[in-house]
Design brief:
alpha+beta; Trna Endonuclease, Chain: A, domain 1; 2 domains; 3-stranded antiparallel β-sheet; 12 helices
């Protein structure tokens, strides 16, 4: 990107791009730090769109599909991880000031995580840049939701990194709600859907990220929902097979708990499921 925006000059760029502002409003991001809430005209939106580099659009696309990501995850996806993190930090700060993205108040990992622990989502301008008629400020997320959603993002990031090393090929990855499967029985709601290739084989899976917060009755209900969806044969007609249900869990203890839950299902349901620790994804998905 040819234009460099420092903190002190951000309003000059805003004015250049056609921003209008109202004082004494504190809606989010810019408002939270400066006491000024911004509104962007259609002409200003076009000018801002022209200023976005390819890497900036890639960040917006990732946040659109994943909903939430930490600065560290975005850095690993879109910048050289071995290089200095200040490039990623400067870009993220810049677009946060312009409300293209929003930096949430809650930071993952506490102060010791540094800037990599900041969590980002699409803000109102970013949503409009991607075609939303009227963007809305990101919701306020609780700690449990953030942990779960960022675990899904981490699986995607790990798949991308594994593809870069030649371990596998990432064919498709969809997070919710893009991965949901409607049917006459209702809507199946996995946390993610992944398609991978390794050698001559392709691997398909519905991913259930479990952070050890749900009761075993909830896990049983989820497993039963997959069995019902399997019986619709929708995926078999589309793919010629039914994707494995991948339970990604944080510890071996939790894995044993889920095995115990699945053991209560009919024997024919067992082959639909596979259990992995989160740190075994994605390598074990193709083995």
């Amino acid at each position: 990107m040819s234009v460099r925006v420092e903190a002190g000059s951000v309003f000059a760029l805003l004015a250049l791009a056609g921003w209008r502002h109202k004082r004494n409003e504190t809606s989010l991001c810019v408002g939270a730090r400066t006491g000024v809430a911004m509104r962007l005209s259609s002409g200003g939106l076009d000018q801002l769109r022209e200023r976005l580099a390819v890497s900036d659009w890639a960040v917006l696309d990732s946040l659109s599909r994943l909903r939430l990501a930490t600065a560290g995850q975005l850095r690993r996806l879109h910048w050289d991880e071995a290089g200095p993190s200040r490039t990623a930090r400067r870009r993220l700060n810049r677009w946060s000031e312009l409300r293209v993205i929003a930096r949430l108040e809650r930071r993952i990992g506490g102060v010791r995580s540094g800037s990599d622990g900041f969590v980002y989502a699409l803000d109102v301008v970013g949503q409009r840049l991607l075609g939303s008629v009227a963007g809305r400020a990101p919701d306020s997320f609780g700690r449990a939701f953030l942990k779960h959603r960022l675990a899904v993002t981490e699986i995607y990031v790990s798949c991308v990194e594994a593809e870069r090393t030649g371990t596998l090929k990432l064919i498709e990855f969809a997070a919710e709600p893009d991965c949901w499967r409607p049917s006459a029985l209702g809507t199946l709601k996995p946390d993610a859907y992944v398609a991978l290739a390794s050698g001559e084989f392709e691997h398909y899976g519905f991913i259930e990220v479990d952070c050890a917060t749900e009761a075993t009755t909830t896990l049983s209900a989820k497993a039963a929902a997959y069995q019902r969806y399997y019986q619709t044969s929708i995926e078999q007609a589309r793919l010629g097979l039914f994707p494995q249900v991948i339970w990604a869990v944080p510890t071996d203890h939790r894995l044993a708990q889920i095995v115990d839950v699945l053991a209560r299902l009919p024997p024919e349901s067992w082959r639909l499921h596979r259990m992995l620790r989160l740190d075994q994804v994605p390598e074990r998905l193709v083995n």
